[in-house]
Amino acid sequence: MQVCFFYFTFRSTLPFPGSQEQYEVFIKDLVCNLFGEGNDVFKEGEWTKSIEMYTEALSIADYADSEDICIPTGLLEKLYANRAAAYLSIGLYDQALEDCEKALQLNEGNHKALYRKAKALKEMGRHQEAYEAVAKCSLAVPRVRMHFCSLSTLKLREEASDYLQSHGNTPLSHHADSPARLDSPWPGVLDYTLHTEDHKCKKDVLLGRMKHSPDKMWKLIRPRPTKTQYVGPYYVCKEVAVGKECLYPGHCTFAYCQEEIDVWTLERKGFISRELLFDPFGPNSNIRLTVPKILQEHRGIFMFLCGVCFDHKPRIISKTNKDDPSLCSHPVTKHNFEDHKCLVHILKENTVRYSKIRPLSPHSQLDLCRHEVRYGCVREDDCFYAHSLIELKVWMMQHELGITHESIVQEAKKYWNATASLQGVQVKTMPAFGPPNLKMMFVCGQCWRNGQLSEADKNKKYCTAKARHTWAKDRRVVLVSSHERKKWTTVRPLPTKKPIPSQFEICMHVTASKKCQYIGNCTFAHSVEERDLWTYMKEHNIPDMDQLYEQWLLSQKPGWGEEMSSNSVRENGKQIHMPTDYAEEVAGNHCWLCGKNCNSEKQWQQHITSEKHKERVFNSEDDQNCWQYRFPTGTFKVCERFLKGTCTEDDLCKLAHGEHELKEWKERREFLLMKLAKARKDHLIAPNDNDFGKYSFLLKDIK
């Protein structure tokens, strides 16, 4: 009756029986009623009828706009998004996509519209665009956590989002008298807030949100997963990305939002520490740092190096001279070591990283220098802020305990001596190599394809077959045989492209006794034996078949356990080098960017002119978190055709697509110039080298 009456009213010449304000309220209520009726019939499966209701509501909204009657934008975007869902249900994907675009024009963060857009694009065969829409959806889905009585009861609820929005988008802020905030080392990217409460909760909650983003909602940042050897970039959980519940709540090693990815990446690099976000010396502080505690977390060793050589450009690593311990080991200068020594934390993994620990002074600030983290601090030792997380923690320990640098070195030696003694006891009880239910052997891959089992000869140069194929890592395969099947089965390399899951599953095609249909390297196991060996490799930190082969060879020798473990210690799944691994005398140039030591001038010049090093000067894994748009092309102008909507070159266009992209390009250029200036100052770039590939535009005089 309301619909008919309304149409009669505005289509006839009769005036509305009421005031203008009543007329506006009437029209808004009518749009809401049609929206509600459309939702009701949609739930009953009458999708065509729901489309009619939504369309009628949108038509009335258009009329209202012509009469200067404002229909809420939130209601309009819901109408378009819901009509898109109805179109999807009856297979009208073009119309669904069009409605999704209209909803997103009103609110680009509408996660339901993004999801339905991705669904429509997928059905239309536009898979790349669908993937991009899903990626945006994964960042837009509101994942707000309610804190009830303890963190173990955190639940993801849609009602929580409505509740928090109605309270000003500040979850948990009513519990904190003075929430602490630490600006991100990446300015303009993230901000963080840690909220504590006065009840019996055992842990604090870290929340994060993007700075300058229309979405002001805080997202929960869970603790970073550390029980995995994965070192690549983090990804959003695939279930969460499409709006579903995670299949492994509480154990998922994937991120739930982009904010979580950014914070985890910064934490892994040591740029932030959630334990230090609050004032560490406040009345409720429970941080008690010691040398063993720092080394347990960061590994490595503390020792003294020659400070003059360390501050040289380029950096030179000099320890004490073997013949005269009062001098440094530099072959020419031989500085007085005791007068110029400096404390350094050394971490030796694939490369060597040296972190100088400057003396704590009354002016020292217990916070990280944001310039050093991004492109290098120009003040160097004159800066009052810590230049690494390890330096910050040492300063905090000194502030609390008053410990000297000499005592830190002595405590570090005691810690490693105790660790080595403990490891010596553990070596004697090492188990046999490989899964207990499997036999293992390495054979020639070429012979295996011909149905032969040919192992390596004594010299490990050829296989034992008459053909004597070369025994190389790319030509051997690993075979395993279980006690149950007693049949040799090949095992593929451990999947490395994606984060290693908490447990491996068998491919569903193989389970159904079919051939795997996956194009590429299937990350699911193709046999029970393969699953068991992959699990063994993951649990024993064996990342690839080469290391598996080396350890298998050692296991064939008497006393292999002692030999394998005498070189290093493993703690929390990571290799820890002992102080003896750092004892060799080094006196050469060190590239702090690449972690490489060079023992001659020729080797140094080869390194700093290499393409890999130049790329490292300008780019690092963390820089990808800073930028939203394309890499600058060198032409800093806005594309006029893009503004008119006629640019067809997309990402190949040399001009900026909008003022926002142009602004970021200019900021990125300044950022890269700072990195280049720092590299030149530290002599990490050859004086006459101006060939930087895609970065050469930095040298042009661009206005």
TrEMBL record:
GO molecular function: miRNA binding; zinc ion binding
Domain of life: Eukaryota
Stored InterPro entries: TPR-like_helical_dom_sf, TPR_rpt, ZC3H7A/B, Znf_C2H2_jaz, Znf_C2H2_sf, Znf_CCCH, Znf_CCCH_sf
Domain C3H1-type: 368-390, 501-529, 633-660
Protein name: Zinc finger CCCH-type containing 7A
Residues spanning the signal sequence: none
Key words, A-Z: Metal-binding, TPR repeat, Zinc, Zinc-finger
TPR repeats mapped onto the chain: 77-110
GO biological process: miRNA processing
Taxonomic path: Eukaryota, Metazoa, Chordata, Craniata, Vertebrata
Pfam families found in the cross-reference section: TPR_1, zf-C2H2_jaz
Chain intervals annotated as zinc finger (C3H1-type): 368-390, 501-529, 633-660
Matching SMART domains: TPR, ZnF_C3H1
